[in-house]
Amino acid sequence: MATDRIVGIDLGTTNSLVAFMQGESPVVIPGDDGSNLVPSVVALDENDQPVIGNAARKYLTETPERAVYSIKRLMGRGVDDIQEELKFFPFRVAEDLQAGEVLRIKLGDKKLGEKTFTPPEISALILRQLKRNAERFFGAPVSKAVITVPAYFNDAQRQATKDAGRIAGLEVLRLVNEPTAASLAYGLDKKQNGIVAVYDLGGGTFDISILKLHDGIFEVIATNGDTHLGGDDIDNLLITIALDDTLGDLGLDLRHNAEAVQAIRNAVIEAKIALSSQPSVKLDVNLPGGKRYLREITRAQFEQLIQPIIDRTIGPCKQALKDAGLKPEQIDEVVLVGGSTRIPKVRALVKELFHREPHTDLNPDEVVALGAAVQANILGGGSEATENMLLLDVTPLSLGIEVAGGVTDKIILRNSTIPASATQFYTTQLDGQANVAIHVLQGERELAKDCRSLARFDLKGIPPMAAGMARIEVKFLIDANGILHVSAREQRSGKEAEIQVQPSYGLTDEQVEGMILDSFDSAEEDFRQRQVIEARNEADTILAALDKGKKSPAWGHLTTDEKKKIAKMEKALITVKAEDDCQAIRKAIDALNQGTTRLAELMMDSAVSTALKGKTMDEADMGEGPTAPHPMAKAEFE
Amino acid sequence: MRAVHFCEACGKVQPPAPVDYFAFFGLPRKLDLDVAALEKDFYELSRKLHPDLNAQAGTQEQEWSLQQSSLLNDAHRTLKDPIKRTQYLLKLEGVELEEQSKTATEKARSTGEIKKQIVPPELLAEVFDLNMQLEELRMQKKMGEDDPALIEEIGNQKHDLEEKQEALLHELQGRWKVWDGMIQRESNGQPVSDEERRQERDKMVDMLNRRNYIRNLVRDVNEVLES
């Protein structure tokens, strides 16, 4: 049994989760707020400290320039391909970005200073939050994880995810495709052989995978999808309509009012969710300037609006079936994954495509994380539940080399089982030529310019020879994570050619290393900050209890001297609480605790004597009564 | 006879041997292959060699497991498909197949050069007619005036070609038996002349080229029909 726990992580566009295998079943690990879902939202608080998850959401509406959401949409992409995204999402990119460079986005306000982050760094903050949740749960460190990615993610997007893991202090043992992970959770549950289609419509990405399940082997036969299609697009459509409405009806152009847009966004998301179970809903948003935006939406109207969006899932589904050589009737089960599959119209579309009712037993929000936990268990050596299980996944996109004429020569076809490899031979054009340039692409199109540039390699250090004499064997290997590795050898001399990679839109190893250190520094700082916050919370609790005590009859029984002493300690605590010294705060708490012992006793006695007079504690209107503050108690808010 | 992939005693993954795909599965270089048996072997070997199931092993073993399983997958993918299997075997026999690819077609189209290709003689007239019809349809589509009769006609031709493709596959499978017989004689110690070997190879190359040509033509038709 592995000593180090390996967790499974679903790093989602909208929500993220961490899970592990508990005995024979996978289980989601909750955050300290008790919630299983950590919203993939990151903000910088007033002290420029990162805030993640539910706590970050209020920043989206109050100070949107300090917050970011749906960062997954930017992973592994360059400034040129996110122009559509920039229209609908409030991402603020750095002005000086070059083509092919990793993206940098700004958080903060111009007044107090902006910080820039790359998408992997933002994702790393979310991963670190999940890591902490797991560590708190286990009471032990966690350093290894399996992280899921959309099946249709390309090499750059996968690499960015791995980088994010490393920055967060996690060794990413495997990237697992989301639909495949979901099938693991399903298969573990059902233990049946057959052909399963997984329809995964999340916040930002769509995947369709067709798998053959037999004797514990989960074999992907075909996969397809759209990495820019999800619930976010539905939200944006509704937001656009609301903004058009307010412009038309109220003459208010709110498109550049970030707070208003976020308020509208929250409202449309609530409405969207409500319409899954109600026939109509009323949008009610408070706009700046005291105006209100009111609009009723019926389910019928909603369905009509979103039809073009969900219809975009039809093409990939049909292509996947075609690639698998299967007809819809031959699919035994369709499994739904992702929050957007709760929409009744989506379920209807799936039923129509696959000629059967989809399987909806599993929680579409959690199933991917649960499956990742199963895979984590397998990688860790397996247990009784998983001893026969093996995942055989595929690469979703064809791998090609650019050849003369700007054409793509496909060397590994899409839906090839991974790990997979291909070998190509190159030679030199000129006498003494020492380098050969190779351009690697991913995609199905014929022309290189229509495919995704994966990387440019320079084979260096070719021994000097006459033109055409060198015989360079280049091996392309796609590993089990779906990531490409290249090695090259000049055959005549036997020399390993040195490969220099310029990853498109990615970070170099040095950059990632640098970011890890930064993260550790701020981890220390974060830890210290947390101690301070916790101490302050405790201080608030005791101060609140003291306030109640002052209003109680017991207060009257104290001597003037005692009251003076308590007042002094109270003032001292309030002063030191405003500062940053955790030790000092705790000292002041202890002092006040000591100083109010007699008060507490008197309050207890008075409660008892009141009770003896025939009244109960409740009736005596004592409020909460004196209790020793629990170390983990949150401050009470009136 | 079969490459040793893992130690029988302790189960540890071994470094991959530089073998061809047939030897990887311990199979003779025969073309008629029991695909069901191949599948079964593939799954069994996957359970031993896959990186996921060797994730707790040492770094060297993990590296070997990555190499071995990519070799396993490549071999399985190639041997499973009848055409790929035949092409692979011919490649092992030192044959270079004709360049019938889309790349060459596009290049020819863009540069105006005549593509290096061999039109199967029995198809000459048919191919000529079909290419003319495709050109006509391309032009119609550009104007937005597709003629349904023309589309149906082309559809029928495509159907014919697909049937020819199937027929060629069956013919090829017939030649497999001859080839396999030859290999069997060889392994029984009976000599096989270079000439006989070459003739058999050439026959299969010819069939593959013809089938490739038809397949590419069908692909061109589909492209125009779906545009």
How would you describe the overall organization of this protein?
The complex is a heterodimer of chains A (638) and B (227). Chain A has 638 residues and is α+β, with helices and mostly antiparallel strands. Chain A is built from 15 helices and 26 strands. Helix content of chain A is 37%, strand content 25%. In chain A, the strands form six sheets. Chain A has an eight-stranded antiparallel beta sheet, with no helix packed on it. In chain A, strand 2 (15-22) and strand 3 form a beta hairpin. The longest helix of chain A is centred in the C-terminal third of the chain and has 43 residues, at 509-551. In chain B, helix 2 (35-49) runs antiparallel to helix 3, helix 3 (59-80) packs across helix 4 (82-92) and helix 6 (124-143) packs parallel to helix 8. Helix content of chain B is 68%, strand content 0%. Chain B has eight helices and no strands. The interface between A and B is medium-sized, with 31 and 23 residues.
Topology:
The complex is a heterodimer of chains A (638) and B (227).
Chain A: E1 6-11, E2 15-22, E3 25-29, E4 38-39, E5 41-44, E6 50-52, H1 54-62, E7 67-69, H2 83-88, E8 105-109, E9 113-117, H3 119-138, E10 144-149, H4 155-167, E11 171-177, H5 178-190, E12 194-201, E13 206-214, E14 217-226, H6 231-250, H7 258-274, E15 280-286, E16 292-298, H8 299-311, H9 314-324, E17 333-337, H10 344-354, H11 367-379, E18 390-392, E19 399-403, E20 407-412, E21 420-426, E22 436-442, E23 452-460, E24 472-478, E25 484-490, E26 495-503, H12 509-551, H13 560-577, H14 582-595, H15 597-612
Parallel strand pairs in A: 1-10, 10-11, 12-17, 14-18
Antiparallel strand pairs in A: 1-2, 2-3, 2-4, 5-6, 5-7, 8-9, 12-13, 13-14, 15-16, 19-20, 19-22, 21-24, 22-23, 23-26, 24-25, 25-26
Chain B: H1 21-24, H2 35-49, H3 59-80, H4 82-92, H5 102-111, H6 124-143, H7 148-187, H8 194-226
Helix pairs in contact in B: 2-3, 3-4, 4-8, 6-7, 6-8, 7-8
